[in-house]
Amino acid sequence: MTPHSTRSVVPWLLAAPAIILLLALFAGPVLILLRTSLYESTGGTGFYRPSSWTFSAYSERLGERYGRGIVVFTVALGVAVAALSVAIGYPLALFIHSLPKRAKALALGAVILPKLTNVFVVLYGVNLLLGNTGPVNRVLLALGLTSEPILLTHNLFGVLVAETYLIMPYAVLVLVPALDRIDPTLTAAARGLGAGPWAAFRRVTLPLSLPGVAIAGQLCLIWALGAFVGPLLLGGPEQATLAVKVQKDSLGYGDWPRAAATAVLSLVTVAVCVALYSRPARALRRIGEARA
């Protein structure tokens, strides 16, 4: 074996354990999911007929208006949450980026801290904050902005707040390193040439951070398209997502073929949305690379 062929084989050997693990834990279950989705349901008894193959679970989910609405709502919620997460996370990342080294580490730790807590506990706290007797409504009543408590949970607003709170830290964790990679002398040079803080940010910092924004947006979109706990705890029936329907079809109704079909639709939805997002993401990266 020549040295060149050895060098070409070594990376594959190093990656082999991870590839085998991914095939065992991802590809295998997905194939089982596909197979189950094609079985014939026995009418919600918790069983199915493995000897029969049918696309009825897919036709039922996509053929009914309610099923199509769930797909549309899942995509719309994912896009909205991803946009909110990046829009809120970017200023926070800018602030953390400007801090001294030790303070920056503490701030990043504070951002990560909620992710170390059980998600149900976190959203229970969000539910208390937004509830009819929670601090938010009490402040609104005290300021005279409303005469009675406003319903902020079990609706779209509650779901948006919950999911943005859960996903926004991922945007911050991507954006802070992206901002740290920008050469500070470029901003200093812009300021030295007479540019104000806003002009220096708009012409230097923002364009150079766009590749990080693209990555953060893609990561948040993938997470948001799988929204489950937020819609389940702080949403209503109208805010059901594909992930929520998988849980209800499987554990609630015992219709495993329909639950499997919904899960497959969720995977396809994520893949299509990521593929559609790749074009604007590449444009953002090209802008950043052109300014670098």
From TrEMBL:
Q: Which InterPro entries match?
A: MetI-like, MetI-like_sf
Keyword Transmembrane assigned to the entry: answer is yes
Highest taxon above the source species: Bacteria
Q: Which GO terms describe its cellular component?
A: plasma membrane
PROSITE patterns per UniProt:
ABC_TM1
Report domain ABC transmembrane type-1 positions: 71-277
In the record, biological process GO terms are: transmembrane transport
List where the protein spans the membrane: 12-34, 70-93, 105-130, 150-176, 212-236, 256-277
Location of this chain's protein in the cell: Cell membrane
The UniProt family comment states: Belongs to the binding-protein-dependent transport system permease family. CysTW subfamily.
Name of the protein described by the UniProt record: ABC transmembrane type-1 domain-containing protein
Tell me the organism's taxonomic lineage: Bacteria, Pseudomonadati, Planctomycetota, Planctomycetia, Gemmatales
